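Hi V.,

Quick status before I head out on leave. The structure for the redesign project is tokenized and pasted below; the design run finished overnight.
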């Protein structure tokens, strides 16, 4: 059975939770040896990304990537943070605002694997689909 990067990340998080720095060093060293033994070293970057996601989830932190045509105002950031906090029952929300002039206006919010497309471009695509063009 093949172990996924998400399974590795969850296992690593559970193994290192509430351990001392010295214990974590030993666990990570052994973890890397297991990856090498299983021929899975190519997954190391993906495992690190998934580890961060797992760690954030366990600690009530939600990271949202928000694409917008221009930099979001503080008021818009606060509204988005409130929405995301409520939707994901998060203690803390971190918003990464990415400028993308191609979206025309509005925002595209990505949290984990979920995407909320409230962009002008996205809304026009939906309308075209509905109208059958």
């Amino acid at each position: 059975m093949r172990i996924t990067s998400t399974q590795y990340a969850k296992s690593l998080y559970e193994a290192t939770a509430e351990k001392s720095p010295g214990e974590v060093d030993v666990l990570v060293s052994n973890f890397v040896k297991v990856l090498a033994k299983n021929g899975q070293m190519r997954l190391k970057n993906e495992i690190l990304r998934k580890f961060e996601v797992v760690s954030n989830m366990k600690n009530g932190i939600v990271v949202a990537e928000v694409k917008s045509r221009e930099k979001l105002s503080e008021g818009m950031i606060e509204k988005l943070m409130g929405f995301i906090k409520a939707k994901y029952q998060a203690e803390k929300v971190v918003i990464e605002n990415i400028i993308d002039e191609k979206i025309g206006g509005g925002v595209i919010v990505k949290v984990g694997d979920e995407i909320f497309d409230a962009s002008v471009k996205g809304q026009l695509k939906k309308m075209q689909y509905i109208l059958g063009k």
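Above is the designed sequence. The beta strands are 61-68, 92-99, 106-111, 114-119.

G. will cover questions while I'm gone.

Best,
W.
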